[in-house]
Amino acid sequence: MIHKKLIPHIFVKKGIAVTGFFDNRVFADGDVVKLAQHYSNNGADELIIFDLSNTDSEHDQSLKLIKEISREIDIPILGGGNIKRVEDVKKLIYAGCKKAFLNMAKKSNLDLMPEVSKRFGKEKIAACADNFALLKEQKELLETYTSEVLLLGDNLHLYEAVSAVSVGAVPILSLLDKEKMIALLSIEQVSGISGNLLSDPSIDLMDLKGELKRRGIVVNTYESKLKWSDFKLNSDGMMPVVVQDYKTQEVLMMAYMNEPAFETTIKTGKMTYWSRSRNELWTKGLTSGHLQYVKELRIDCDNDTILAKVSQVGAACHTGHQSCFYRDLVKKEYDNTNPMKVFDDVYSVIKDRKDHPKEGSYTNYLFDKGIDKILKKVGEEATEIVIAAKNPDPEEIKYEVSDFLYHVMVLMVERGVTWEDITKELAQR
């Protein structure tokens, strides 16, 4: 079953955020990353980013901003604007965009579509148009080389335009109300919708999705596979909930849910508990701002404990600590070989050496010598891996791969690439 997508949009120029409203593109010094996080955490399915840059240098600023946004949000990004060559599409995709969209009003972009589609894959290319006659004229081009079309405008030809395309259509409307939204989302070719209504940060997208669902529109909402009556409750009629950071896997806290708390969590996507001390429903962070956004709810083998994986804003503990479990009770020393933690720890040490040089440090020696020396070492270590692989003893391979990864991390720090960038790129593949 294909869910219809609700997609806010943001305009950027020179790396500066705008209000997000289509007809009133007033630039502001607001935190565009925080705005994107708000959309991601509050029910948006994707995010469209229009780069309104006029120059290559401005475009580079916008790309940096898109990259920063992609690190901080979990929903796909559709990015476009100022595309003149294949390299511009590549930069958008490498910055973290799921798709790059090309403006069909530019003849050069029409000529570019076949090449970028073949190079990056049809699923990564979309088109953007406000000339609906052009959609009919270029129908074969769109069907062959794109996977989606963004349709700009509110005019009467919109419904005709939607019907004219066979790839997914995403109308982007300034004049958007709920009834028009329902009418458009009811059309088979419409894969999603964007507009002023959805880009207004004050709109509760989860609440809107609930209304759309009641009106027969298939949207992506939280749904539990089990009913409350299927759970084995404790003597107080509650379910214990263990809360875990969805990225780091760190255990953050433990609380309890009754049925209203569970249903509120499912409806809103924000972790809600029953406060036994205050004897009331408690949406975590509603007062402090330290909200917990649901990423996944799991049930244990006995149906008597919930594991919640969340995106935690700020600290989970009322003491200000990230986790409520910040004190050791009993501890035996051990080596933490969690791969991601090891990579993060080594990367942090390398970055600290760059930020705070230490005399005699080999890492600082590499940074002082510069990029050419670092690249030379990466190449040498890669060759050492090839040589080691000819040896049947795996110990030598372990040693050489470790050397290689260290030097690669020096390169990553030098060029401002993080492990999160790498893992996101691998996940997208």
UniProtKB/TrEMBL annotation:
SUPFAM superfamilies cross-referenced by the UniProt entry: all-alpha NTP pyrophosphatases (SSF101386), HisI-like (SSF141734), Ribulose-phoshate binding barrel (SSF51366)
Record-linked Pfam families: His_biosynth (PF00977), PRA-CH (PF01502), PRA-PH (PF01503)
NCBIfam families the record matches: histidine_hisI, PRK00051.1, PRK02759.1
Family indicated by similarity: In the N-terminal section; belongs to the PRA-CH family. In the C-terminal section; belongs to the PRA-PH family.
Region Phosphoribosyl-ATP pyrophosphohydrolase, annotated ranges: 343-429
Gene: hisE
UniProt GO BP: L-histidine biosynthetic process
Annotated protein name in UniProt: Histidine biosynthesis bifunctional protein HisIE
Keywords, in A-Z order: Amino-acid biosynthesis, ATP-binding, Cytoplasm, Histidine biosynthesis, Hydrolase, Multifunctional enzyme, Nucleotide-binding
Associated pathway: Amino-acid biosynthesis; L-histidine biosynthesis; L-histidine from 5-phospho-alpha-D-ribose 1-diphosphate: step 2/9; Amino-acid biosynthesis; L-histidine biosynthesis; L-histidine from 5-phospho-alpha-D-ribose 1-diphosphate: step 3/9
